[in-house]
Amino acid sequence: MTRLTTVTRGLLTTLAALLTATVPTATARATTEPKAPEDFVALRSVDPTILQEMRYFTPHNFVGERIDGYVQPTCLLTRPAAQALHRAQRTVLRQGYTLKVYDCYRPQRAVDHFVRWAQNLDDQAMKGEFYPNVDKTRLFTDGYIAEKSGHSRGSTLDITLVRLPAKPTRPYRPGEPLVPCFAPREERFPDNSVDMGTGFDCFDTLSHTLDPRVKGVQRANRLLLMDALEDQGFVNLAEEWWHYTFKPEPYPDTYFDFPVSRKSLTHRH
Question: Which one of 53, 129, 240, 249 is the catalytic residue?
Answer without folding.
Answer: 240
